Amino acid sequence: MTAQKWPAMRRSLVAILRGIKPDEILPALDVLIEAGFTAIEVPLNSPDPFRSIEQAAGKVPEGCLIGAGTVLSVKDVDRLNDAGGRLLVSPNVVPAVIEKAGRYGMVSMPGVMTPTEAFTALDAGASALKFFPTSVLGAKGVAAIKAVLPAGTETGAVGGVSEQNFAEYAAIGVRIFGLGSSLYKPGMTPAEIGIRARAAVEAYDRLCGDAKSP
Questions:
Q1: Which pLDDT does position 111 carry in this prediction?
Q2: Which of 41, 54, 154, 163 is catalytic?
Q3: Considering 24, 100, 130, 154, which one is annotated as catalytic?
Q4: pLDDT tens digit string along 47-93?
Q5: Res 212: pLDDT
Q6: What sign for the dihedral angle of Cα 37, 41, 42, 43?
């Protein structure tokens, strides 16, 4: 199976909006896009997540990836497609989920902690690998697994990641950063989200000089 590639982005930053409500998604989306985010994930253990995804998918400009996190079943992949989501993120590796996402043309990023999980995900057609939780693996653990992966494998760091530690993961070739509680917590105002989003983007741009070119 040919994997759907992780798309070229000005910044490979994924906003993880765990716990966001449908009536909060559009104001949050506005400030995130204004700050420079182009990938937004609504985990499925949020309130009415498919409604939030559908609203977001109908509003974002071309080139933005909107989708779901904590996708655990093929049924959820079908519902995500119906809602217009194009990004699928999971905490684990379920080949059937990854394969179904590929058939829909979605970008998929399953969570891995071991080489076995990593190769299983790649064999199923994953677009990128999410090292999760990165705070447990650490940069040394991620680097050890990356050393045996095929050249060109896109990798992301999620779980305990913020602008404070972008550099240590970028140094070992991690290009994608998923920001959860360091960016958003339930109940935050759009203004508060915007402040954190701008800080993350500024840190990313300082670290990745090529991110400054569209």
A1: 98
A2: 41
A3: 130
A4: 999 999 999 999 988 889 999 999 999 999 999 999 999 999 999 99
A5: 42
A6: negative
Angle subtended by helix axes 74-83 and 49-57, to nearest 10: 40
pTM for the structure as a whole:
0.93
**Cα–Cα nearest to 64, from 32, 90, 23, 89:** 32
Residues of the chain with pLDDT under 50: 1, 210-214
Q: What is the pLDDT of residue 1?
A: 46
Task: Report which residue type is found at 160.
Answer: G
User: HSE-up of 7 (CA within 13 Å, CB side)?
Assistant: 18
Task: Supply the DSSP symbol for 6.
Answer: P
Taking residue 175's Cβ as centre, other Cβ atoms within 10 Å add up to 16
Q: In degrees, to the nearest 5, what angle opens at C-alpha 187 toward C-alphas 84 and 108?
A: 30
DSSP 50-106: HHHHHHHHTTSPTT-EEEEES--SHHHHHHHHHHT--EEE-SS--HHHHHHHHHTT-
Residue 17 DSSP symbol:
-
Q: What is the pLDDT of residue 17?
A: 98
Read off the tokens for 34: 């204004």
Give, in degrees to the nearest 5, the angle at Cα 87 between 155 and 38.
80
Structure tokens belonging to residue 102: 């590929």
Indicate if 41 belongs to the active site: yes
Query: Has 130 been annotated as catalytic?
Result: yes
Q: Could you tell me the two tokens for 35? A: 């700050």
Which strand (E) or helix (H) includes residue 178?
A: strand 176-179
Q: How far apart are CA 130 and CA 39, in angstroms?
A: 14
